[in-house]
């Protein structure tokens, strides 16, 4: 086939139609070059899609993991300023005490009598001693863990019973009279005092802390927090109502991230969670209260577990004891998290920030069956994964259309 026949068959062109063979050939070459350029452009787009779409999915996966991690550390600023617990071990005693925060000027002193300008707040209206519990010079580790008293044979409780805010030992700035009045009214109200909230005793109970040098006295106090005149449900409702009132009466202090106010609110809302955890007993061992057993141990890791509902994480240096009680406390928290949507279960905000890490550390040290892991991250993942995949699909399609 000569050049003329080739042009006729492949391009439908006639050299005799007024065009020269050279002109026709140049046209054919130009047409071929355009086709090649178009195919190269398509190839480049496909290569970009092949590179960008997997890269996008990788970025989505990383961002989801980062967001999940941030969730565990996005607790309110109060948790960064919470009074920490120290485990003192000396020749005379092993006690868990709170480090006093730095004083703030012109504030409200919460002690036996809380003084303000023109007002005073007495957290002990009976006027009796604020140290109703006896102490012991024998270290807790050398004391015998007393069995938890039976409800049918209750112990003699200290009178007056230890109350929160009996002696915080620091000056705390409450900037509004409404907030001062709230604390005064709450701490003197029968429905508050009769509930004996362990959640707040852990944070603001001086007599409660002092009682930890005597395991028998401590056991009696724990019994008192578990056996209250007002029912569990009634106390849960009362303290939740106080938390709501606090948010209104101390709104300025809440905005200022006042540590006393925010920790008090958490303690009011955490009441049912920490009452359940505090009343646990070591049925297979000492038969005593788990909290008393935690104080008895030289390793303070189990005592740290009672701070998790406040958003205070288990210290990285803590070595889990792997005790049955530690597992029971974590199990009670897992149940609270799994039933957090129900009424009367308390606030799980603090646990959402701390539980998974503590459970993972405990399971790693004590065995996979010791604690339920992934409860918080698993609950988040159930809605995060479908959403993430939908977003990824939509963006990938947009990339494809834009490149094409």
Automatic annotation (TrEMBL):
The keyword Protease does not apply. The chain crosses the membrane at residues 46-67. Signal peptide: none annotated. Residues 160-373 form the DUF7729 domain. Keywords: Membrane, Transmembrane, Transmembrane helix. The keyword Oxidoreductase does not apply. Residues 101-114 have a biased composition (Polar residues). It comes from the Eukaryota. Residues 115-145 have a biased composition (Low complexity). InterPro entries: DUF7729. Pfam families: DUF7729 (PF24855). Residues 93-167 are annotated as: Disordered. PANTHER family: C6 TRANSCRIPTION FACTOR, EXPRESSED PROTEIN. This is DUF7729 domain-containing protein. It comes from Schizopora paradoxa. The lineage of its organism: Eukaryota, Fungi, Dikarya, Basidiomycota, Agaricomycotina.
